Amino acid sequence: MGHMPEIHYNADGLVPAIAQDEDTREVLMLAWMNEEALRRTLATGKATYWSRSRQEYWVKGETSGHHQAVVDAALDCDGDAILLTVRQTGAACHTGNRTCFFTDLTAQDLT
């Protein structure tokens, strides 16, 4: 039995969770979890997040059908970020894109 790793939630009780595709290794999205969302995710194998805008839990794919089956969950070395390895059904992004990270940034964008 390993020791319970310490998860460092932010002031709002949340920790960022990154979803990565098991097969392609693409970084699909970043969302937020509180302790209960993480507990539900690990118990059910379905990625469950906390919606900051709606102030409620959401199971990825519940409304869109674009489910995330959690293969593995890892905590980073500082205990302040979670990496989920997932089997993604359909698009990860609510825009219909496969990944949420489709907007390129350059230094000029910040001037």
Automatic annotation (TrEMBL):
Signal peptide: none
GO CC terms: cytoplasm
Cellular location(s): Cytoplasm
Pfam family, any one: PRA-CH
InterPro entries: PRA-CH (IPR026660), PRib_AMP_CycHydrolase_dom (IPR002496), PRib_AMP_CycHydrolase_sf (IPR038019)
GO molecular function, one term: phosphoribosyl-AMP cyclohydrolase activity
Keywords from the named record: Amino-acid biosynthesis, Cytoplasm, Histidine biosynthesis, Hydrolase, Magnesium, Metal-binding, Zinc
GO biological process, one term: L-histidine biosynthetic process
Reactions catalysed according to its record: 1-(5-phospho-beta-D-ribosyl)-5'-AMP + H2O = 1-(5-phospho-beta-D-ribosyl)-5-[(5-phospho-beta-D-ribosylamino)methylideneamino]imidazole-4-carboxamide; 1-(5-phospho-beta-D-ribosyl)-ATP + H2O = 1-(5-phospho-beta-D-ribosyl)-5'-AMP + diphosphate + H(+)
Pathway the protein contributes to: Amino-acid biosynthesis; L-histidine biosynthesis; L-histidine from 5-phospho-alpha-D-ribose 1-diphosphate: step 2/9; Amino-acid biosynthesis; L-histidine biosynthesis; L-histidine from 5-phospho-alpha-D-ribose 1-diphosphate: step 3/9
SUPFAM superfamilies with a match to the protein in the record: HisI-like
Binding site for Zn(2+): 77, 93, 100
Cofactor(s) listed: Zn(2+); Mg(2+)
Residues reported to bind Mg(2+): 76, 78, 80
Enzyme Commission numbers on file: 3.5.4.19
Domain Phosphoribosyl-AMP cyclohydrolase: 29-102
Note on cofactor: Binds 1 zinc ion per subunit. Binds 1 Mg(2+) ion per subunit.
Known partners and oligomeric status: Homodimer.
Membership in a protein family: Belongs to the PRA-CH family.
Protein purpose: Catalyzes the hydrolysis of the adenine ring of phosphoribosyl-AMP.
Protein name: Phosphoribosyl-AMP cyclohydrolase
Gene: hisI
